Fold:
Amino acid sequence: MVPGVTGMPVDVAAGDLVQPFQVEAPGLRGRLVRLGPAVDTILTRHDYPAPVARLLAEALALAAALAGALKYEGVFTLQIKGEGPVKMLVADITSAGKLRGYAEITGDLPDAAAIEAAPVPRLCGKGFLAFTVDQGEHTERYQGIVELDGATLGDCIHHYFVQSEQFSAAVRLATRQDSSGAWRAGALMLQRLPDHEAIIAREERDESWRRAVILMNSARDAEILDFALTPTDLLYRLFHEDGVRIFAPHGLAFGCRCSRDRAARILSSLPRAEVVDLTVDGQVTVTCQFCNTTQAFDETQIAALYEA
Structure:
């Protein structure tokens, strides 16, 4: 294991890391994201159909890649809202590297072949993709929103980058469920550096960008998700001709922020009569959408919430 810059140890062979790098010749920043136990824990806590689990796995890898491009202290959230059977999908990551996510399914899914051809429109329908940076109650939230436009999540984020005046980037996503049922997810991301753009001729800059994106997209899913292939070896394989500099990795891990105290605050914020109506067999239960953990409160504990 090696120390991650977030303070969490990084087990390269297990994944769950963000590997920052820089392609030297064109002056591009990049990140390689690999998710192993973290994404598998998130997905196996729910009984999602495989296409939904795959889309959520991509969203988690994408959230980690995008968050790595920002300087913030708090929570970065990627959210999809749509009119399809997957009404909502959320992936968020804290600045400490704690990941969580969930999908809300409200309708019947189409057949697998239709989903595979165009997962976003088939699962989510019309809707939007939003990114939010929340650094606490005394700071202003940053949010970017774009219409869902594309067959895949990769297509949708590309549409966002084309629309954005502040973010020039390209992303490659990969997911896999192995023979044992365990999930893996990964992302490769390249980002232009504004300060570098100012000192390089436009034609040269654009040509360097196109070349780097082509090289990034030449990576196979199997390479991105092969944790035995170290990040250094993969990145050198892709970008060695232009020179690639590898920085210290960031550790990632599953981490939900739910708690019994938070569940109690949610209940106490509701009218008492409404909470009483939720009582079943003498208890009210609160289930976290993210980790599927349930907190139960009996009648005495509920009464105490309103007497405090």
